[in-house]
Write a structure and sequence with these properties.
Blueprint: E1 3-8, H1 14-28, E2 32-37, E3 52-56, H2 66-76, E4 84-91, H3 97-108, E5 112-113, E6 119-122, H4 123-126, H5 129-143
Parallel strand pairs: 1-2, 1-3, 3-4, 4-5, 4-6
The structure holds flavin mononucleotide (FMN).
C-alpha cells in the first residue's frame, strides 16, 4: 500500500470538502491518504515519507492564495521529482488556481502527474452526487498511477 498526501488551503470549507472526497477516492483505490491543511506544514521535512501528492487551493482574485504560493516554494525543497500527483480547486466563475498548481508540479517539480489535468469544480457542484463522484474518481485516477 502506498501513501498519498492531500494538502489544501480553504477559507470557507469548499476546497476542504473536495480534499476529503479526493482522499476517499485514494482509499477506494486501495491506498492510504493523509489529509492536511497547508498552514500546518511548516518545513519541507513534513513532506517526506509520501509516495504521491495532491495539492488544492481555491481561486481568489483569479489567483491562488499567497499561502499557497509560499507553500509551493517550500515544496520545491522537498524534491518531488518523479512522484505522482494532482491538483484541485473550488471556484465560482474563473477557477485558475488548480491549473496553476498543476503546472508547477509538472514543470517545476517534474512530477509524474496523472494525465488528467487539475480537478476544478464550481463550488455549488461539490456537494452533489456528481461532484462527490468527480472528486473520488480523481483520487482513484491519481492512485492508479502506482
Ligand atoms: C473576494 C473573493 C474573490 C473571489 N475570486 C474568485 C475568482 O477570481 N475566480 C473564481 O472562480 N472564484 C472566485 N471566488 C470564489 C471562490 O473561489 C469560491 O467561493 C470557492 O469555493 C472558495 O473556496 P474555499 O471555501 O475553499 O475557500 C472569490 C470569492 C471571494 C470571496
Amino acid at each position: 500500500m502506498r501513501k498519498i498526501l492531500v494538502a489544501y488551503i480553504s477559507r470557507t470549507g469548499m476546497t476542504e470538502k473536495m480534499g476529503n472526497f479526493i482522499a476517499e477516492g485514494v482509499r477506494m483505490a486501495g491506498h492510504e491518504a493523509e489529509i492536511k491543511k497547508i498552514a500546518e506544514i511548516k518545513t519541507e521535512k513534513e513532506l517526506k515519507g509520501f509516495d504521491g501528492y495532491i495539492f488544492g487551493c481555491p481561486t481568489y482574485h483569479r489567483d491562488m492564495t499567497s499561502g499557497m504560493k509560499t507553500f509551493l516554494f517550500l515544496a520545491q525543497k522537498a524534491n518531488l521529482t518523479g512522484k505522482i500527483g494532482g491538483a484541485f480547486c473550488s471556484y465560482t466563475h474563473s477557477g485558475e488556481s488548480g491549473s496553476m498548481i498543476y503546472d508547477t508540479m509538472q514543470h517545476v517539480y517534474k512530477m509524474d502527474l496523472a494525465d488528467l489535468g487539475a480537478l476544478n469544480l464550481k463550488e455549488h457542484t461539490i456537494d452533489t452526487q456528481e461532484g462527490i463522484k468527480a472528486c473520488q474518481d480523481y483520487g482513484k485516477a491519481v492512485a492508479k498511477k502506482f
